[in-house]
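TL;DR need structure tokens for one chain.
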Amino acid sequence: MEQFQLIDPDAAKALLDAGAALADIRDEESFARGHIRGAQHLGNHNLQEFIDRNDLDLPLIVCCYHGNSSQPAAQYLFERGFEAVYSLNGGYEIWQTRYPETCDTGTP
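>> reply
TL;DR here they are.
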């Protein structure tokens, strides 16, 4: 892999089921209202900690609202040493409609 790759929700679900890591870069309030189960919230405040505590050899999927903001974030993480990084096409908005049973929701 020479850079991050785009990944559709079905392929992302298969990777997650196989043990891939998941980073959600949406704002904290949106993350608290709902996110894909097992996702780690990632922001500027915990970026280095996230890099330090995750296995760089495991696939990493980056999720945002619609799949746009996650692309530069995925490239950044790839450049920081993650071997295989993916940006979730359609982001959380598509994921929650396709796999609602895999989402943890909080209070609005």
